Amino acid sequence: MADARSPEAQGPRTCAWCAAKVTPDLLMCPNCGTELSGLVEVRPGRRGPRARARPSFDGRALPDLGARWWGRVVDSLIVGLPAGLLVRVVVHGRARVAAGAILVFLYEALCYAMWGRTLGKVVAGTRLVGRESRDRPTVEQALLRALVTSVPTLVLVPKPLVGILLADLAAIIIYLPVVRGRERRGLHDLLAGTIVISARS
């Protein structure tokens, strides 16, 4: 007897574009080339549509770089900007940078530990999970991941001019594996044992 979640038990599907009946195991409509799954990317070609498997983890698509970037931008606008303004009013001198970094660190660590996603990740449709557990990160994983991304900002505190260059270099080192790695895990994910997946697949 087939499992209720298996493709055989689900029966045929209908392509949303051309209304052709397709079997549940197909990732692309054989009639028009429309994508039928979040795990495949369909692009036009000279001889018709071309399909290529998207990077995935545990049956879930990995978000593209645009979604990762968008999530970071939203977090910066929603949390980073107000936190920076608050710190500017309350804290004085070089301690402002450290106070801002600590606020962002606490925000990310709490969001990851409680929900597995920040507000930016909610908007971008992504989620953070433990690579081994496939579930919400542990408190230790959340703290370590948030700490690694906060370190570049803390470098700015003692020497602001040199700190800017060092912070940029540290950010490149942290995020370069996201661009180059097969699982799109940055240094912060590698150290914390986490991975960012799509929440929409």
Description:
- By secondary structure, this protein is α+β, with helices and mostly antiparallel strands.
- It folds into 2 domains: 7-54, no CATH class; 60-198, no CATH class.
- 49% of the residues lie in helices and 13% in strands.
- The protein is built from 7 helices and 8 strands, in the order αββββββαααβαααβ.
- The protein has helices at residues 7-10, 65-90, 95-114, 119-124, 139-154, 160-180, 187-192; strands at residues 13-14, 21-22, 40-43, 50-53, 56-57, 60-61, 126-130, 194-198.
- It has a two-stranded antiparallel ribbon. The chain has a two-stranded antiparallel sheet with strand order 3-4.
- Helix 3 (95-114) packs antiparallel against helix 5 (139-154).
- The radius of gyration is 21 Å and the shape is elongated.
- The protein starts with 6 loop residues before the first helix and ends with a strand.
What are the SSEs and their pairings?
Elements: H1 7-10, E1 13-14, E2 21-22, E3 40-43, E4 50-53, E5 56-57, E6 60-61, H2 65-90, H3 95-114, H4 119-124, E7 126-130, H5 139-154, H6 160-180, H7 187-192, E8 194-198
Antiparallel strand pairs: 1-2, 3-4, 5-6, 7-8
Helix pairs in contact: 2-3, 3-5, 5-6
Assembly status: single chain
Which strand order spans the largest sheet, edge to edge or round the barrel? 1-2
Form type: elongated
The structural domain count equals 2
List keywords for this structure.
two-stranded antiparallel ribbon; 8 strands; disordered N terminus; 13% strand; 201 residues; alpha+beta; 2 domains
Short description:
With 201 residues, the chain is α+β, with helices and mostly antiparallel strands.
